[in-house]
Amino acid sequence: MAGLIQRAGLKVVVGLGKTGLSCVRYLKQMGYTVAVNDTRENPPNLAELRTEYPDVVVSLGHLDAELLLSAQEIVCSPGISINEPALAAARQHGIQVIGDIELFCRATTTPIVAITGSNAKSTVTTLVGLMAEAAGIVVGVGGNLGTPVLELLAQPADLYVLELSSFQLETTFSLQAAAATILNISEDHMDRYANMQEYHAAKQRIYRNCHYYVTNRQDLLTVPLLPEHIPNTSFGLNPPDLHQYGVIKEQGVSYLAKGAQKLMPTQEMGIFGEHNVANALAALALGEAVNIPMTAMLTTLRHFTGLPHRCQLVTKQQQVAWYNDSKGTNVGATLAAINGLGASISGQVILIAGGVGKGQDFRPLSPALVQYSKAVVLIGEDAQKIDAALSPQLVKYYASTLVDAVQQAHQLACAGDAVLLSPACASFDMFKHYEDRGHQFVAAVNALYSL
Q1: Is 174 annotated as belonging to a binding site?
Q2: What is the structure's pLDDT at 251?
Q3: Percentage of the chain with pLDDT > 90?
């Protein structure tokens, strides 16, 4: 039994969040000697670790250079940059720094659909997983979404669908995806990467050794530098060529289409907005690549109503709609939400935005806001930076709290308008995480109407 074998070499797990603890459990089950290093003095899951594995050495409060240099291999959580000096020194000494996705890929030969992108990863990953379920395929869904990927190995599966971040891809070497995609690329994590080229290179790693790939033909940065003989297709919001996915318009009706074949009217989808049409087309292309029947995929698109905190309708009161898009943590995501919502309502958008800007350029938001917005209510650490970057044509307000922002938006909104929380920023200046921000928004909106 693998769990009874004592394997040579020390594995040092860096970071004791949910992912880190899953790595410790997996490595101990596989018979490895494991140590843990975390920069925090009291990381989450510490008590759980010490109860389950009292023999595991734990070093806290800093990256322990001595411990890292004693490792045979380092398993790094995605929240920690591999360019930290102690990790860079270990790499220079020939010690490989990997992540949980790498451990997973080494452990399974089951086909993997691998999905990355600056935005929409979670929605497309969830859609492909639900499409597989609808077809009766035993599927495991995880990665950067929900379940730590190593926990998926506990149950048998015929297919895995993984959401992968650029951070996870940096430490992954053995992925051979049955189908891989970059959905889109826009500026993000500029507090972690030196420039867009570095971020782009991390995303492109998803295509290494893949068997099939899907690109966004309206975003050239998603196109891989791969040999042309690898099978592939594309999706886009324009009319598709043969074997491609896209949109056909006839007599004022828009259809999801493959080549010249109309698949279903977009208005029959359970999710709204052009960005979600693109997400549906990407999911269809990936699903087809791993032989999910079209009938099951289209049925899923009719019934799927979206994920929490992603352009989620909170309520519609007095002909004003309130949308929670707290997962909009970068400019590209917020831009997609503004365009998708703005084009679908009779009134205007009142945007609540702000937080930790991660070094982004907020200027690309201006054209859509000028076209669709009534006002922007700014919150958080980088409110002034966003204000300075946006067009002076826009009406802007400041709010000290999210409750204050909701109340100001309520005063500004008229029948037909929509209030959109899509911060274009990380949440950790004012909230525990984006889910906490979303929940607080929902609570503040409900309090307005005593719901």
Answers
A1: no
A2: 95
A3: 87
Domain identity same for 261 and 397: no
CATH number where 157 lies = 3.40.1190.10
118 annotated to a ligand binding site: yes
Model confidence pLDDT, tens digit, residues 231-263: 999 999 999 999 999 999 999 999 999 999 999
Q: Among this protein's residues, is 18 annotated catalytic?
A: no
Q: Is 339 a catalytic residue?
A: no
The first and second tokens of residue 132, run together, are 């597989």
Last residue of a domain, one of 303, 336, 355: 303
Backbone CA torsion sign across 114, 187, 406, 272: negative
Full-model pTM: 0.85
Q: Is 121 annotated as a binding residue?
A: yes
Residue range of the domain that includes 219: 107-303
CA nearest to 119, candidates 222, 197, 226: 222
Catalytic residue check, 144 = yes
Q: Is 305 annotated as a binding residue?
A: no
For residue 339, is it within any domain?
A: yes
Q: Which of 37, 45, 144, 330 is catalytic?
A: 144
Q: Which member of 11, 189, 309, 396 is catalytic?
A: 189
User: Do 332 and 289 fall within a single domain?
Assistant: no
Over residues 14-27, the pLDDT tens digits come to 999 999 999 999 99
pLDDT, tens digit, for every residue of 32-76? Answer: 999 999 999 999 999 999 999 999 999 999 999 999 999 999 999
Q: Are both 32 and 131 inside the same structural domain? A: no
Q: Of the listed 11, 121, 275, 327, which one is catalytic?
A: 121
Judge whether 120 is annotated as a binding position: yes
> How many Å apart are CA 421 and CA 352, to the nearest integer?
5
Given 263, 284, 303, the domain boundary residue is 303
